[in-house]
Design a protein that fits this description.
By secondary structure, the chain is α/β, with parallel strands linked by helices. The chain has 15 helices and 11 strands. The chain has an 11-stranded mixed beta sheet, sandwiched between helices. The longest helix is centred in the C-terminal third of the chain and has 25 residues, at about 370-395. The structure holds glutamine. Glutamine binds near residues 128, 131, 176, 178 and 424. Glutamine (GLN) binds near residues 174, 175, 177 and 178.
C-alpha cells in the first residue's frame, strides 16, 4: 500500500489499529521524498533523522497507552518562514541562509504537542513575495502536474510536497494568496484562516496586518483536523483573537440545503480564462443540485484591491525587513570598511530583486509627503473593500469565485512583475478584509488543476468546510492526484 498517498484520517485509522507504525509511515514518506525530490525540489531542508526519532517516540507513547490525537505520527512539512528551534529557517533568502532559530513558532509547538512529525522545511518565494517560487533565493520548485510549470507561490514548496506525496499535510502562509494560489495550481486543499485565528508568533513577518498561517491538505476532513490543532488564542501574538474556536469536524455534515452562496460578478469575465470559468460554473451547478441557493452579487471596490495591496504590503515589508542588517541575523558582507557600508552591502548581497523592489516601493509610500497620498489612502480603500464583504455577508453564507485567473503557468512566462502580481486578483481582497477563504480543486483544464475559492465572514471557516465537504462528497472533480512523469 502506498501510505504516502493516504489522508490524515485514513492513516490515523491504520495507526490506531496498529496496522502500521508511525516509524514505518515516516520511512515510507521519506522514501517517496528520495524518489521524487530531484524532480519537484519542494524542500530547502529535510530533517530525516529528527523525523524518524520523533516517529519512534510517538510509537512508544502508543505502546504505553498514552492517548493520542488525530495528528499523532503524521508526517508533515512547514514552509521555511516558520521558526523551528535548532533547524535552519531561511525564508528562502540568502540573507537568512544560515539562520537557526532559538525558539519554535507557536504553530509548530502546537503540532509538536499533537505528535506530528516534521519532515522538513519547504521552499518558497523569498520572504513570501511572489506567486511561483521563482523568487526563491536558492532554486525553484516544480509543479507535480507538469514539471515545466510553476507550483504557484509563495508557499509553492508546501503545496507541491502535499500534491506529490512528499508530506501528508503541510503549512503555508498567505499574505495575498500564498496558500490558496499554490493549492489551486497543485490540486490540493488550501485554507487561509481568519486574521488572528492562527498565531503568527514565530512566523517571519512579510506584511504583518495581512500574513496568516494555514493548512495544505488532500481533503476537507484533513483540513478540519489540522485547523483543530493550529487555531486558538496565543498570548505571544498580540493580534491573536481570543475567540471561541469550534471543533471544525462538526461542520462536515454533507448537507447544504438552503445555504446562500453569492457569486460576485467582478471575479468573472475579463482576465479570467474562459475554460477555468466554465469549470467554476459546473461547481455552481453542482451546489444548486445539492440544494444551495445561488445568486449573483457585487463587490464594487474589487478593482482597487490590487493597487491597495501593493501599497500596504510593501510598506509593511519595508519596516519588517529593516532588521536584516548583518548585525543580528544571517549573512554579513565581509568586504565593508565601516558599519554603514556593511549594512548596505549585506542587504544588497542578501536580498533578491523582488524583495529590493518592494522595500523601495514601501519606503517611498511611507515617506513624509507621500504617506497621506499613498499609504493612508490605501488604508481607507482597504476599509471600503472590507465593507463590500460585510454587506455581502448580510445576505450570503459564503461567496464563490475562481481561486486564480488561470491554471499553472510555465517557468519564466511571467517575468513582468505586473503580470505576476495579477495572479492574485482573486485572492488579495480576502487578506485586505481579514476574512477566511478555502481553495479546493475542481477538475482539470489542459490536464492542470482548477481551484475554486469559497470566501466566508470572519471566523466562518466552519461554513466553508461544510460547503467544501458537500462538494467533495458529491463530485469526482475535487479529489485529483497527479501522475508524476517517470515515477512509478
Ligand atoms: N503573490 C503575492 C505577493 O507576492 C502574495 C504573496 C503571499 O501571499 N505571501 O505579495
Amino acid at each position: 500500500m502506498e501510505l504516502f498517498s493516504l489522508t490524515i484520517h485514513e492513516l490515523q485509522g491504520l495507526l490506531v489499529k496498529k496496522e502500521i507504525s508511525a516509524e514505518e509511515l515516516t520511512k515510507q514518506v521519506l522514501e517517496r521524498i528520495e524518489q521524487v525530490e530531484d524532480k519537484i525540489k519542494a524542500f530547502v531542508t529535510i530533517t530525516k533523522e529528527e523525523a524518524l526519532k520523533a516517529a519512534r517516540e510517538i510509537d512508544q507513547k502508543r505502546i504505553n497507552g498514552v492517548s493520542l490525537g488525530p495528528l499523532a505520527g503524521i508526517p508533515m512539512a512547514l514552509k521555511d518562514n516558520m521558526c523551528t528551534e535548532g533547524i535552519k529557517t531561511t525564508c528562502s533568502s540568502k540573507i537568512l541562509y544560515n539562520f537557526i532559530p532559538p525558539y519554535n513558532a507557536s504553530v509548530y509547538e502546537k503540532l509538536l504537542g499533537a505528535g506530528s512529525v516534521l519532515l522538513g522545511k519547504t521552499n518558497m518565494d523569498e520572504f513570501a513575495m511572489g506567486s511561483s517560487t521563482e523568487n526563491s533565493g536558492f532554486f525553484a520548485t516544480r509543479n507535480p502536474w507538469d514539471l515545466n510549470c510553476v507550483p504557484g507561490g509563495s508557499s509553492g514548496g508546501s503545496a507541491a510536497a502535499v500534491a506529490a506525496g512528499e508530506a501528508i499535510f503541510a503549512l503555508g502562509s498567505d499574505t495575498g494568496g500564498s496558500i490558496r494560489q499554490p493549492a489551486a495550481y497543485c490540486g490540493v486543499i488550501g485554507l487561509k484562516p481568519t486574521y488572528g485565528a492562527v498565531s503568527r508568533y514565530g512566523l517571519i513577518a512579510y506584511a504583518s496586518s495581512l500574513d496568516q498561517i494555514g493548512p495544505f491538505t488532500k481533503d476537507v476532513t484533513d483540513c478540519a483536523l489540522v485547523m483543530n490543532t493550529i487555531t486558538g488564542h496565543d498570548p505571544f501574538d498580540s493580534t491573536s483573537a481570543n475567540a471561541d474556536y469550534p471543533d471544525y469536524t462538526s461542520f462536515l455534515v454533507n448537507d447544504i440545503k438552503g445555504m446562500r452562496v453569492g457569486i460576485p460578478q467582478e471575479y468573472f469575465g475579463e482576465g479570467i480564462d474562459p475554460e477555468v470559468e466554465n469549470k467554476i460554473k459546473e461547481a455552481i451547478k453542482k451546489l444548486e443540485e445539492l440544494g444551495a441557493i445561488v445568486e449573483e452579487c457585487s463587490l464594487p471596490h474589487t478593482q482597487y484591491a490590487m493597487p491597495t495591496y501593493y501599497l500596504i504590503a510593501p510598506a509593511e515589508c519595508s519596516s519588517n525587513l529593516a532588521r536584516y542588517d548583518g548585525v543580528r541575523y544571517g549573512l554579513r558582507a565581509e568586504d565593508a570598511d565601516d558599519v554603514l557600508s556593511m549594512f548596505s552591502r549585506t542587504r544588497n548581497q542578501g536580498f533578491g530583486v523582488e524583495v529590493k523592489r518592494r522595500i523601495m516601493l514601501g519606503t517611498y509610500a511611507l515617506s513624509s509627503g507621500y504617506y497621506d497620498a499613498y499609504y493612508l489612502k490605501a488604508l481607507k480603500v482597504r476599509n471600503l473593500i472590507k465593507q463590500d464583504f460585510d454587506q455581502a455577508f448580510e445576505k450570503f453564507h459564503c461567496l464563490l469565485t475562481p481561486t486564480t485567473p488561470s491554471v499553472a503557468f510555465e517557468f519564466g512566462s511571467k517575468s513582468d512583475p505586473l503580470a505576476m502580481y495579477k495572479q492574485d486578483v482573486c485572492t488579495i481582497p480576502v487578506n485586505l478584509a481579514g476574512i477566511p477563504a478555502l481553495s479546493l480543486p475542481y477538475g482539470l483544464v489542459n490536464n492542470k488543476p482548477v481551484g475554486l475559492q469559497l470566501i466566508g465572514k470572519a471566523f466562518a471557516e466552519g461554513t466553508l468546510l461544510r460547503i467544501g465537504y458537500a462538494l467533495e462528497q458529491n463530485s469526482q472533480e475535487t479529489r485529483i492526484t497527479p501522475i508524476l512523469e517517470g515515477v512509478k
